[in-house]
Amino acid sequence: MAGYKLYYFDARAKGEKCRLALAAAKIDFEDVRLKVSLTGEESEEWAKEKASGRPPLGQMPFLVTPEGKIPGQSGAIMKYICRQSGQSKPRERNFDTVYSSGLCPEDSFDEALANMIHDATDDLRNAVIKSFLRKTRLKRRG
Ligand SMILES: N[C@@H](CCC(=O)N[C@@H](CS)C(=O)NCC(=O)O)C(=O)O
């Protein structure tokens, strides 16, 4: 049976946390990196992949599981990876034991806290990107 395959652009953006989570969970995966187009247009390989209808909602990152299931949306993929890695018990929470016993907190409130931190970092990243794009637009205008 084929292993996991994570599809994303060759960039450290939305899909990077999924790569890191798979590595932290010690889940073997193929890191499929599609070329990033620097012109703003879709690269040929991404256009082809998108046209195949495989990427959920026409976006990356997406994960192909060994069973051939294809979850999309980086947050959903993160939660899936954490659950696949197993549960960590509250008393074991330190780096060594979390890595060996799973990334998903057993306690549902702890899981909500982990999801809260995930979503907050997404908000922060989106704000940074927005400000970066605004700065770039202003620079172009001169
Ligand atoms: N909410 C989605 C956003 C995904 C997203 O915006 N993906 C972008 C790359 S970062 C994409 O696939 N862009 C190519 C396109 O839409 O054609 C997530 O967190 O996964």
TrEMBL record:
CDD domains: GST_N_Sigma_like (cd03039)
Chain positions covered by the region annotation Disordered: 40-65
Source organism, top-level taxon: Eukaryota
TM spans (from-to): none
UniProt domain GST N-terminal: residue ranges: 2-89
Pfam families: GST_N (PF02798)
PROSITE patterns reported in the protein's UniProt record: GST_NTER
Listed InterPro entries: Glutathione_S-Trfase_N, GST_superfamily, Thioredoxin-like_sf
PANTHER family: GLUTATHIONE S-TRANSFERASE (PTHR11571)
Name of protein: GST N-terminal domain-containing protein
High-level lineage: Eukaryota, Metazoa, Cnidaria, Anthozoa, Hexacorallia
